[in-house]
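Readers outside the structure-tokenisation community will struggle with the description of the input data as it stands. I therefore recommend that a typical entry be quoted early in the introduction. An entry of this sort, consisting of the sequence and the corresponding backbone structure tokens, reads as follows:
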Amino acid sequence: MTRRLFTACLGTETNSFSPIPTGLGLFGRTMLVRDGQFGATPNLFALPLQLWRERAAARGWTVLEGLAAFAAPAGDTTRAAYESLRDEILAGLRAAMPVDAVLLNLHGAMIADGYPDAEGDLLAAVRAVVGPAVPILAELDLHCHLTRLKVDSADALVIFKEYPHIDVRERAAEVFTLLERMFDSGLKPVMALHDCRMLGFYPTTREPMLGIVQEMHRLEREPGIVSVSLAHGFPWGDTPEVGTRVLVVTDNDAPLAARTARALGDRIWAVRDQMVPPLLGIDQAIDHVLGAAPHEKPFVLADTADNAGIGACGDSTFLLARLIERGVGGVALSPLWDPGATALAHDAGVGARLAMRIGGKLGIASGAPLDLSVRVMGLAKDARQPFGGSMAPLGDLAWLRVGVGSGAGHEHPDDHEAIDIVVNESRIQSFHPECFRQAGIDPSRYRALVVKSTQHFHAGFAPIAREILYLTAPGTGSMNFASLPHTRVTQPLWPKVENPHPG
């Protein structure tokens, strides 16, 4: 039987404490695609749409593709931007009617002016267009706000299981398989939601999350259970339903869904103190590096609080300034967002020596700009780095070298007497060693590498790292969850309170 499917994408990850507004321009610079024209190197959030197109074609089904819009993480989305994108998706859906199903790829942590749950608002609006009988299924990022409105508006939701996000296409395939089962065998999805009442950071590359992800897969093999998801939540979103939640989908068995969600939630609560990896202060991390014996692999230092991937500015100088003050050579950092410095370096050319002001541009969380004497070591145009099966744009890059310690003031300091800084024009986190290599840097030659990322770097950097150190430093991505300045949260959450559960 021929089916008509409507697909679309909308999302961003809103950091309510970021000074960078999210307007239409940011969507345009990230992903704003109509008619499925994703190009040769699609955004990560285009991958589900492409897979659904392929799977539908194999069944002989028609896919009607609506707007695909995604913005790099930043501050609140403007009302005008959200409403215009939502309304374009809805207009496309109305024009496509009648449809047999709607498949949406959403992030789930988008907050817009007047819309604390923007993607929930979109799902509700889609339901109003298609009515109660048409299946609506969606894929969500695991950092979504898993709200009641989202759950009530959809037939089934499927969330990434892995952090870093290496399973985007797998979860998209799961969504499509659920739809096939609804059409082919009469599957009736029922969802249950359990609120863990937690804020946190849960990398799935280490225990206890490794075991929890395995348990989710095991549960999905149990009779009657269709899908199990954990929404980590996005702690830096100031919205009423922020926090960690479990979602279980069963085949028309609400009690089984509720029991399973509660049991998994209880397991997560029991290991809450073990979730966050050890966090080191800046000087602690530097001391650790300096105290270590020489090794063929570099340390990787994650500047978690200045991760553009969670809406931070990506231009903070706190760690870089301390490395310079302490004269720590043999260190490379990539990328530091500074379009102005990047453009000046490209104008000057490789080999040029420049007096340059670097970083610290966006506000108090960025630290102070650094006035440095640098040498331009390498340049690249339109650089990219791998991320989750896609290629993420770094834009133009410039490799700048500053002498430190015994190399300070030297015309040509050696690697061990220098700090190498990659500045770039596109605000983006460090995903992969290519963010160094694209500028001409061999990351294996250094004592330590500094990445501005929280966890997505792990998949690319773990194979080349001696040890990964997670740093806590000032920034809009602070990992001190207890002190985040939420004003809209309506319920107690751990670790803000010791026991947020009633009774």
Residues 314 and 413 are 27 Å apart (CA to CA). The first strand starts at residue 4 and ends at 11. The chain has a mean pLDDT of 95.
